Amino acid sequence: MNKSVLLLLLAIAATEVAAALPADCSVTDANGVRRVMQPNGELLAAQCYQCHGDQGRSLGEIDSIGGKSAGDLYGDLREFKSNGKADIMSLQARAYRDCELYAIAQYLSTLPNQGD
Amino acid sequence: MDRRTFVKKLGLGTVASAAVAGTLAKADSGSAAATAPEPFEIVVVGGGFGGASVAKYIALWGGAAVKVTLVDSNAAHVSCILSNLVLNNQKTLANLTFPLVKAAEKYQFAFKQGAVAGMGAELNGSRFIALADGSKIYFDKLVLSPGIDFDFPRGMVQNGWTDTNTPFPHAWKAGLQTNNLRDQLKMLPGGGKARVVMTIPPKPYRCPPGPYERACLIADYLKNKKGGGKLFVLDANPAIQAEPVNFGKAFSGLYKGIIEYQPNAAVNAVSAAAAFNPRLALPQDKTINVSYTGALPANPIGSGQKFHLINVIPKQKAADLLFGTDFRHLLGGKAWAGVHIDTYQSLYDNDVYVIGDAHDSVQPKAGHIANSEAKVCADALLRHLQLRPARVMPDEAPVTNSACFSPITASTASFLTAGYRYNPALDTMEKIAAASGEAEQINSDNYKMMLAWANNLFAEVF
């Protein structure tokens, strides 16, 4: 593989990684400069623990969420947000920007897995 | 705190740049013990859902850079959440009692049992909380989570009446009054003869759905254990304040003929011939003076009518502690403490934060959201101490949530949930309509989820 093809592949890979970030992570600041938002996943994820247990470790019927894959968690949160239902989790998911849900999923995935 | 002390605690001069970068919390404590700065002293007053949670998260996120002490006059917290289930014998107070020393061990902060008598400062500027036993606890930052107290109607409180024998237990702080109210319900006459009143205070009050939930459980108890009876629900507000669809349905359907709901009804006074005696049948000796604003209900209650049981949930205000000489400035002349709502820092005192039921905001006064506020406050307080980098907006706009399950019968429940987000342009927390609502159905699944939710919340806090 020559160098220019390698660079092209790297550029495509980088684009794909960027595309994985939710679109609403992109914000324009007061000076008109576009930048990527960085929500505090640790703080936002802590707002899940009232129902899902400390560090996402649930004691009873509610799902444990600590240590699950970030992709699965984000997919579930997006599904809750957009499903049109009015259960607690669907309502709660609508409190957050996609970018925040993404940060929550990323943070929760770093916690010890508690099983289901 | 003076600047010299602040610099010393940050460890500037020895490990200066790390501190400024906001990474010092743990970075300089392990590597160079000889130069480790003194930890910031954080005192939290009030060991309920707000106070115990903020102590936990300041200790967790502050690490070795903070020393957190929780102060409460009681050795244990008795949860208001689920306490209406004591009334129908689904729970006991023991199930809802959480020793604070255990929470402190579990989440690594110190607990000191003691009544707060005041707040002061030494000549060098060091601030402290004074306890009734004469001891002082010094702080760099103070978080108050003292909850509520009451404005009682005339006749509700008298010398010689205790939590155990008062004929008028509000039971709006869980404890001995909860058992008293349970016992009075048990002593009501059967055969559909029981005549009961409960009153709902003007908003804001602790736990918006709570009074309606209690009305349902009392009505359920009358229906199933006492052959029916009459429960007048007198609401100082113009309408049901939470879950209006589900509570409305329960009042007019499930409990038709038992509950009579009367809005715009304010209680002025109550009277009883004697203290509650659990060994005697409950006498029909209690009266209530009510003012109706607007249209009179079909069966207005007059001062001549007598009832077996009157459960007044009194009008509420921030805890009495905040009306004391050393704390009154935090109220700014109001009934609730004024705070910067994105941090919970007092509007009137930069070293003091107020969270939970005692602060003034659109967020409901309840345990679940007090825990949510505690996390936002802990994060903000650590940023103010430069233990975390300054908050970036809109990336880190505070978001809080409220969720609450309400039993409607001994085996079914409803729920209420809401989300709130900080709006920097208006400097307020705003309710997010799309994230807020009540249960579509009253059912047994909600009842099971209520117990699962409460167990996780209890374990998260205590």
From TrEMBL, chain B:
The keyword Signal applies. Residues 41-147 form the FAD/NAD(P)-binding domain. Keywords: Signal. Residues 1-27 form the signal peptide. Pfam families: FCSD_central (PF21706), Pyr_redox_2 (PF07992). It comes from the Bacteria. Residues 178-271 form the Sulfide dehydrogenase [flavocytochrome c] flavoprotein chain central domain. Transmembrane segments: none annotated. The keyword RNA-binding does not apply. PANTHER family: FAD-DEPENDENT PYRIDINE NUCLEOTIDE-DISULPHIDE OXIDOREDUCTASE (PTHR43755:SF1), PTHR43755. This is NAD(P)/FAD-dependent oxidoreductase.
